Automatic annotation (TrEMBL), chain A:
<feature type="transmembrane region" description="Helical">
    <location>
        <begin position="217"/>
        <end position="236"/>
    </location>
</feature>
<keyword id="KW-1133">Transmembrane helix</keyword>
<feature type="region of interest" description="Disordered">
    <location>
        <begin position="51"/>
        <end position="73"/>
    </location>
</feature>
<keyword id="KW-0963">Cytoplasm</keyword>
<keyword id="KW-0333">Golgi apparatus</keyword>
<feature type="transmembrane region" description="Helical">
    <location>
        <begin position="149"/>
        <end position="167"/>
    </location>
</feature>
<keyword id="KW-0325">Glycoprotein</keyword>
<dbReference type="InterPro" id="IPR051521">
    <property type="entry name" value="tRNA_Mod/Golgi_Maint"/>
</dbReference>
<dbReference type="GO" id="GO:0030154">
    <property type="term" value="P:cell differentiation"/>
</dbReference>
<comment type="function">
    <text>Involved in the maintenance of the Golgi structure. May play a role in hematopoiesis.</text>
</comment>
<keyword id="KW-0221">Differentiation</keyword>
<feature type="compositionally biased region" description="Acidic residues">
    <location>
        <begin position="58"/>
        <end position="73"/>
    </location>
</feature>
<comment type="similarity">
    <text>Belongs to the YIP1 family.</text>
</comment>
<keyword id="KW-0472">Membrane</keyword>
<protein>
    <recommendedName>
        <fullName>Protein YIPF3</fullName>
    </recommendedName>
</protein>
<keyword id="KW-0812">Transmembrane</keyword>
<feature type="transmembrane region" description="Helical">
    <location>
        <begin position="179"/>
        <end position="205"/>
    </location>
</feature>
Amino acid sequence: MANSSGSSRNLTAADWGGFDDNMQAGAGAAVIDMENMDDTSGSSFEDMGEIHQRLKEEEEEGEGAPEEGEEDGAFLGMKGVKGQLGRQVADEMWQAGKRQASKAFNLYANIDILRPYFDVEPIQVRNRLLESMIPVKMISFPQKIAGELYGPLMLVFTMVAILLHGMKSSGTIIREGTLMGTAIGTCFGYWLGVSSFIYFVAYLCNAQITMLQTLSLLGYGLFGHCIVLFITYNIHFHSLFYIFWLCIGGLSTLRMVAVLLSRTVGHTQRLILCGTMAALHMLFLLYLHFAYHKVVEGILDTLDGQHIPGPIQRVARDLPLVPNAVLNATAQILLAQSR
Amino acid sequence: MAETEGFGDSGSKQLFAGLSNVSISGDIPVEGEITVPMASTSQEDDLSTLDEPVKDTIMRDLKAVGNKFLHVMYPKKSTTLLRDWDLWGPLVLCVSLALMLQGGNADSKDDGGPQFAEVFVIIWFGAVVITLNSKLLGGTISFFQSLCVLGYCILPLTVAMLVCRLVLLLSHTTASFIVRLVVVTVMFAWSTFASTAFLADSQPPNRRALAVYPIFLFYFVISWMVLTFNTVS
């Protein structure tokens, strides 16, 4: 009796396994195959009938039962494994999804980790902004760098807004992507990328500076950029820009260079580190000004205006030349081969 | 234990034994609903929305959204916007603003006008950044509450956009630009003021300026987009 009940359990498991298999096949097609579904249901009903009959037979003749049961078990084992595999895959998918969700939640919950870097008073921020324009001529003793991210982050966002304004007013056209994405990418890319690079160089040159301090230093250094860009995007005088570039941009660069100088030992190292920093910082301002300014607008217009007759037409004229050249080449090769 | 239970049983029997032959006169009502009258307030009525008409449901939601619009237009120190937040109003405002900014240059492909996606992303990304910033500064406001307030406070700017389009329909002269400038400036101030009124309380008092700056920047960018919008002439 116990045996028969065991086999019946197996049989029901088989039924479920078979059903699972069919479901998987259906799911793979991404469209529910009605024929397949019908097959499944039909077969399952038949199976049910068979099971019923078999159970009755088993009850009637007790000796034949173990053999059949074993066979069924072996046969059903395979199907059971397949069903379990499907279940396992689904389980793993579920687990992965859960992990992702919990990671996102943890990120939000772990916002407290970042909170110390945003622990500032308005007056402190104002003072640091002003100090970012005042180079301190004290290089014998390491200068203090505030490890704080509120000011830099806000300056980067301000610069994004100013860049957007500059792009719009100069009529810049970006073929692939939006103005917004380009502005954000440029500003954050510069801030994070150059900070990492400077940190790397500082590591090579044995300067005493941490990543956080680099981010803060470079971030506050963008204050001068913001002022210069905001003024020169609205007032278009090249001489004015160059004066501002040298004075304001130069001051903020000098400030950073002085800080780095005070934290590095050795002339070569100082030269490498400060030269890299100053060059990158000043050239970035130059790039931002001229990339989204009226001068470039003219170039963009000539590039975009394909209806204007000019050098663009050369492309159209060049096109038929290419097959000619290819034909000539092939003809020559053929000639050479025939000889 | 059994002893005490037995004692309790017998005790209660003894207690209530006297009540069996107490008669209650007919005029005192002894039957009724076993609900506490204080509990059956509006809360329970709100919850039983299964059998109400769909119209009622929609109208209630619309009323809630409209009520919040009113709150933005008359920014008082009220917690209605904060208490039951929803994102329907912000969605409607954001989509309508983006559509209006898009409409003028849908026909011409290559002018640097604001695209629908761009406006949409600026609004939501900006709101998320402001919210995260306020959380980082130690604000005591939930994520979606802040999103809700910032979204609803775009309402003045959407109105400004509407006015700008109407003005642009009439004329393209310098006078129309001055009118637009005034309207946008006023509405920008209104937006910033309203959102500050709702959100400033959640910030520590010494850091209010730090939390307000990104809000100012956010609405400044949007209002600047509204101002520079120009239909293709």
